[in-house]
Amino acid sequence: MLKGIPAIFPPELMKILMEMGHGDELLLCDGNYPKAGSPTLCVRMDGHGIVDILDAILRFFPLDTFVDNPAVFMAVVPGDPYVPEIWEDYRKIGAKHEPKGLREIAIDRFDFYERGRACYACVATGETALYANVILKKGVVKA
Description:
The chain has helices at residues 11-19, 50-57, 86-97, 109-117; strands spanning 25-29, 42-45, 71-74, 104-107, 121-125, 134-137. By secondary structure, it is α/β, with parallel strands linked by helices.
């Protein structure tokens, strides 16, 4: 055990976050996300939702300040009337940990899968909310 590390964090996730460099991306995927859209390196956190995981990650993980949109959401499929309420929770967490918030963009589902496959790693969660997937681009730690 270490001081200040959220109990939700498995050791392999902390290792991955520390290995990642500037510009590397991390995929947080919900329980419905397909394996075909995931990178090989994956941490399973099935008993947890993305809101709690995102809050824990952003305590340590700086978002990239050199890009306009360091957070990427999966856009709602055209014609689907669903409104992803979880996105507001994500924005609140982003505002809590980042001076400029998440600065997110939503992209097409299949473009998201392609970008997800190219991520450094993924965190597979038990999140049940629809359109809850998010990709985070790592920034630099500024002293």
